[in-house]
Write a sequence for this structure.
């Protein structure tokens, strides 16, 4: 039997709240520290304890990070999903199951089945904690079957339990017991194995929420009002964790105010108040929170108050699938609130960009005097991703057009709070407490000096200026990244967490003889580069993780009408992180509809 | 003619604002005048004040006073959160917020409650007329059961008493006054401006257009005839020696505010202990039973830390921090990366 090395997927079916996440992260960390390209997806339920959870580990020599199109090794630890997990096993799947679960032993034609008495082993170590420790037993069995490095495995346990001796010792004991038992009792019949490779010493695991939290701190955040909501909570908790170490003044006092607010409306209200007063304020939320914040977001647009809001997208609409992922909020962010609006949206596609866009967001917000959205999703935000570096900001802060002294105010000819004296649509502002050109900030119509006005010409001119201001961001914000083929036949425009799957999609298309160019959009409003990319290619597919093709809608609206027929939407969303095959099949089907023969 | 100057040598004209667009005789205009007087007489630098408001007739008034101060006319019912954000960002600001009964007792009651819970450093005036003026006179949530506006039916719904609520929530300064009681309101507002924490002042302010009829419990005539005062007040600012103020003939109590000013409470009737929340609630309930309005300083607690104190914020207002204070140095990021790389 030819071994299959470092190229397979493991699915682990467990019960939420039994400590299986610790076990899964230990496995992930072990593989990572062995230098094996690996990614992990936690498919967890919206409760704390008792519902089914799956953890999908993908090891891939080609660096694929998506969950993959099939499972090669299925670990069965959950009675409730027993039948379903078994049904999903294709021929050739390795099934590892806990024989102590009171269910019929799995039988499946063409599958390789290994059973181990995991709960009994765990009970022999500590009867009280047997349910938790049983999860370590499947790690032990996998360690034996896949030939995992024992020293690295033990160090991963130590990392997971933060050096807590008692927890480390009991869990290592369970892993070792199962590993030894497996070595003595299981005769390996499957081809899957792990081989250590040279680990990149710079690489580490992080998640988007942590990267954004750190980026915000280096971006000079001075206020974080927030309201808990999955999957964004990790950002606020990350900021709160790192702040005491990173952001105390010489007297040991805080240079950032954190308030857990009563709801999302209050959170964004505090952001608006802080931005108005000259602070760098941010909140983090998910789609339902954005819906609630919308009125304030419109006020900030119209009154031109800076602020940053991170949306970690979960599956909507409504409460939706709160622990699943989607790119379903994009169009809502771009045109948030009532009336004519438009907002800069930063769209990171990896951990490095989560960090970078988080600090840059404050610069853009103050420069443009508006709310700047960061757009992440549950997949980026909560799963562990390999990252090489967080690059220290390469520019000083851009505090925008704030007039802090009488001299600065005097130097602006014909100053008015909302007068476009520079021709870029961006006015100057003064801060409360300064006594400089005081004005009443308001959401009602006002003239260039900030005085109340319902004059139609004044309103129209002001709205055109706001449009000009945001349009100016097209060349300021992060530009798209492109990988161009020689033949400019088919191009794919995509964004955000699709970055983790695009290479696999590209390879699958290439296997059919189709070479595609790629253009990853990293911000809204769209860069002119996107229009150029579309113009250069015969056909462009806009690829996204939602139902209706939200970016497709935005692109159609913003490109010249003669380019519109060249653009097609491929959008699919089922709550799970993207699987390459689903999208490559849909792309091929769409192209066949355009007359391509593939 | 010599122009009178206040203790920081500013004329009163430095504290005025634009012309009001409210109805002639509106109680809110009287309150705006009290704001002007109190800020001027207290010698507060006008630009140090941030005028905050929500939406409604009352929330328009920041345009009519303190024209030298920045202000923010925010969204309906959400002024407290904006005030919180602004005050935490600039701890030098004196937040003077104006809201109404529609703004605070209905759509904004959540933010009203949580601003009290946090003890946000702000003066929170509720210009309370019992109706929604801008949408032409619908009842608000504070109007008394049995009260009747000019047009329409008698209100049969139980009211929300904002002072009762504030006392129960532990607000650190709770007062009720009447827009027609200029002296009392001025003293209370001055004291509120000297308090570091949240000061709730619920001001009955008759709506002359929709509810100034005699069947309305919030008309001028009704309030004048049915007001029970807790004390007579005298405010002695921290810059005036208390010895120079005449000692009242009867019983009195001096309360020292956070900035050293004194609010002198001269006993009226059976007296009221403003440090006792039970007494405050009793006073409100007793007045309510006989359809009267109790006015004065209901409750005062100087000991609870304000929000900015409990957050242990930097002495430099956050909006004035240097880039050095806001962005940790590069070596700190290297340390984090080393930690993450294990």
């Amino acid at each position: 039997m030819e071994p299959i090395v470092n190229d397979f997927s493991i699915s682990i079916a467990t019960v939420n709240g039994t400590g299986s996440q610790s076990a899964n992260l230990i496995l992930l960390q072990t593989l990572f520290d062995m230098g094996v390209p690996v990614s992990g997806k936690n498919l967890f339920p919206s409760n704390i304890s008792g519902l089914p959870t799956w953890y999908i580990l993908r090891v891939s020599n080609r660096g694929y990070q998506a969950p993959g199109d099939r499972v090669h090794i299925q670990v069965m630890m959950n009675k409730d999903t027993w039948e379903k997990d078994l049904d999903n096993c294709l021929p050739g799947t390795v099934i590892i199951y806990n024989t102590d679960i009171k269910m019929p032993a799995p039988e499946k034609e063409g599958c390789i089945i290994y059973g181990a008495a995991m709960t009994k082993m765990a009970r022999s170590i500590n009867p009280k904690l047997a349910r938790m420790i049983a999860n370590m037993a499947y790690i032990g069995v996998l360690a034996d079957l896949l030939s995992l490095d024992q020293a690295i495995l033990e160090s991963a346990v130590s990392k997971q339990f933060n050096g807590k001796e008692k927890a480390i010792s009991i869990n290592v004991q369970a892993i070792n017991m199962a590993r030894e038992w497996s070595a003595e009792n299981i005769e390996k019949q499957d081809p899957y194995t792990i081989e250590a490779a040279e680990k990149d010493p710079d690489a580490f695991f992080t998640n988007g929420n942590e990267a954004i939290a750190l980026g915000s701190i280096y971006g000079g955040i001075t206020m974080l009002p927030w309201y808990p909501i999955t999957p964004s909570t990790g950002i606020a908790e990350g900021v709160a964790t790192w702040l005491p170490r990173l952001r105390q003044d010489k007297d040991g006092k805080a240079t950032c105010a954190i308030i857990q607010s009563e709801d999302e409306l209050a959170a964004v209200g505090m952001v608006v108040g802080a931005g108005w007063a000259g602070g760098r304020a941010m909140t983090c939320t998910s789609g339902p929170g954005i819906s609630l914040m919308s009125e304030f977001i419109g006020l900030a647009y119209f009154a031109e108050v800076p602020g940053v809001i991170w949306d970690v997208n979960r599956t909507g609409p409504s409460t939706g699938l709160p622990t699943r992922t989607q790119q379903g909020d994009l169009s809502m962010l771009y045109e948030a609130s009532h009336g004519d609006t438009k907002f800069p949206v930063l769209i990171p596609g990896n951990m490095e960009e989560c960090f970078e866009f988080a600090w840059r967001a404050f610069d853009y917000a103050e420069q443009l005097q508006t709310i700047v959205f960061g757009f992440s999703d549950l997949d980026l935000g909560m799963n562990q991703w390999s990252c090489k570096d967080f690059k220290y900001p390469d520019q000083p802060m851009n505090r925008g057009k704030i007039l802090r002294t009488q001299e600065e105010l005097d130097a602006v000819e014909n100053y008015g709070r909302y007068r476009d004296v520079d021709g870029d649509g961006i006015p100057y502002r003064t801060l409360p407490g300064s006594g400089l050109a005081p004005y009443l900030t308001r959401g009602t119509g006002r003239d260039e000096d900030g005085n109340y006005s319902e004059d139609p010409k004044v309103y129209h001119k002001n709205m055109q200026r706001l449009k000009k201001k945001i349009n100016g961001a097209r060349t300021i914000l992060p530009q798209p990244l492109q990988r161009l083929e020689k033949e400019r036949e088919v191009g794919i425009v995509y964004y955000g967490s699709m970055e983790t799957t695009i290479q696999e999609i590209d390879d699958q298309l290439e296997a059919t003889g189709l070479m595609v160019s790629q253009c990853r959009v990293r911000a809204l409003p769209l860069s002119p580069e996107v229009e150029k990319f579309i113009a250069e290619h015969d056909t462009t597919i806009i690829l996204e993780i939602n139902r209706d093709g939200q970016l497709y809608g935005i692109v159609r609206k913003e490109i010249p009408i003669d380019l519109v027929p060249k653009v097609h939407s491929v959008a699919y969303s089922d709550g799970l992180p993207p699987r390459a095959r689903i999208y490559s099949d849909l792309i091929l089907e769409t192209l066949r509809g355009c007359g391509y023969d593939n | 003619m010599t122009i009178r100057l206040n203790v920081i040598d500013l004329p009163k004209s430095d504290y005025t604002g634009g012309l009001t667009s409210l109805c002639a005789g509106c109680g809110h205009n009287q309150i705006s005048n009290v704001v002007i007087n109190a800020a001027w007489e207290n010698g507060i630098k006008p630009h140090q004040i941030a005028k905050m408001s929500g939406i409604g007739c009352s929330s328009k008034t920041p345009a009519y006073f303190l024209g030298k101060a920045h202000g923010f006319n925010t969204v309906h019912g959400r002024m407290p959160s904006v005030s919180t954000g602004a005050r935490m960002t600039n701890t030098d600001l004196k937040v003077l917020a104006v809201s109404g009964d529609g703004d605070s007792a209905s759509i904004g009651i959540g933010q009203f409650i949580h601003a009290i819970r946090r003890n946000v450093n702000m003066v929170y005036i509720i210009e309370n007329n019992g109706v929604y003026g801008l949408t032409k006179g619908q009842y608000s949530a504070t109007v008394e059961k049995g009260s009747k506006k000019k047009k329409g039916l008698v209100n049969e719904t139980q009211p929300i008493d904002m002072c009762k609520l504030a006392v129960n929530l532990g607000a650190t300064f709770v007062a009720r006054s009447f827009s027609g009681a200029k002296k009392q309101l001025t003293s209370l507002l001055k004291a509120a401006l000297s308090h570091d924490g949240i000061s709730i002042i619920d001001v009955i302010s008759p709506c002359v257009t929709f509810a100034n009829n005699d069947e309305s419990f919030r008309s001028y005539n009704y309030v004048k005839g049915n007001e029970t005062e807790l004390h007579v007040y005298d405010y002695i600012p921290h810059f005036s020696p208390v010895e120079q103020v005449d000692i009242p003939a009867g019983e009195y109590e001096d309360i020292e505010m956070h900035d050293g000013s004194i609010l002198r409470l001269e006993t009226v009737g059976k007296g009221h202990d403003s440090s006792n929340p039970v007494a405050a609630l009793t006073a409100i309930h007793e007045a309510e039973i006989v359809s009267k309005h109790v006015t004065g300083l209901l409750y005062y607690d100087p000991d609870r830390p304000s929000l900015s104190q409990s957050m242990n914020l930097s002495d430099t207002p956050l909006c004035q921090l240097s880039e050095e204070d806001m962005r940790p140095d590069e070596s700190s990021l290297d340390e984090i990366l080393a930690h993450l790389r294990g």
